[in-house]
Amino acid sequence: MFERSYADPYIIAEIGVNHEGSLDRARAMIQSVARAGGHAAKFQTYKAATLASARNSPSYWDTSQEATTSQYELFQRYDTFGADEYRALAGFCAEVGIDFLSTPFDLESVGMLAPLMPAVKIASADLTNVPLLRAVAGTGKPVILSVGASTYDEVDWALELLEQAGAEQIALLHCVLRYPTPQEHANLLGIESLRSRFGDRAVIGYSDHVAPSTDGTLPAIDMAAIMGARIIEKHFTDDRNGVGNDHYHAFDEAQLRSYVTSLETVRRLAGDGNPDIAAQHEAVANARRRIFVTRDLPTETVVAESDLIALRANTGLEVARWDSVIGRRLTANKQKDDPILEGDLAD
């Protein structure tokens, strides 16, 4: 997943807990991700008691969409899956041909999940979680770290901790920790800022919380792909009208499929960045200027600059050789509007 080419990101559809405790619903959503062309279905593995304070964990989401004002209460609602369920989901992902991922939020989950996954994702809010970062690095798996609400000094600190703890492959995902993220706060140039600061140590990607536009389009992740994000993560749902924290800013199967299709166009448009002269052969042959004479010139004339004009044509010396023609002696008679040819000049 870390060796993606430009405009060909590894797409993580984050189901999270949008399955709402139903294993059948989780399987159906995995199948939707696979049908639409996603590369991985990702979940979240936690227990409320080891994640948030029961008395002091206020909400950080849009309470008009999710009315619960306590993190502990919300997480407790959806923390029913255990090791057996996650092993079953990993197996089902393998059956339908996509990767299984789940973000661990405690040390026990790290150990349980790591053997099931090609990489381990760390949530933005755990970027400073020393024991969790060390445990994840110690698995030997590639690490994907979201960096929402973090300073660059904190990112550098987290990278150093992961590297010292054994992580050899790391991806940093630009992220804004607002649910949903207003378009004016998406700050997608943060992708380039991460690349310029940490691109020699990590692959750079994007984790998106911007709600789809009213017409269903996904401008944030479209732009992220164009900017070269190698990993793109976005919440995934089977019901964008569903009540809950992660439904209203997620994309669904139809939107994911449309996005995957749009990437095919982006890849074609992107090319490989090298000049494709062969594809422009006719333009090179016919549209470039070549050297012509402005008056009749007999043999032995020493060519002056005033004798020449650059015209678009498919014959004659290219105008790039202009200076090499001036001051040379003609070996043939030239009439006005004739091109200067390769054999017309004495050495």
UniProtKB/TrEMBL annotation:
It comes from the Bacteria. It holds the Pfam family NeuB. Residues 290-347 form the AFP-like domain. This is Acetylneuraminic acid synthetase. It comes from Leucobacter coleopterorum. The lineage of its organism: Bacteria, Bacillati, Actinomycetota, Actinomycetes, Micrococcales.
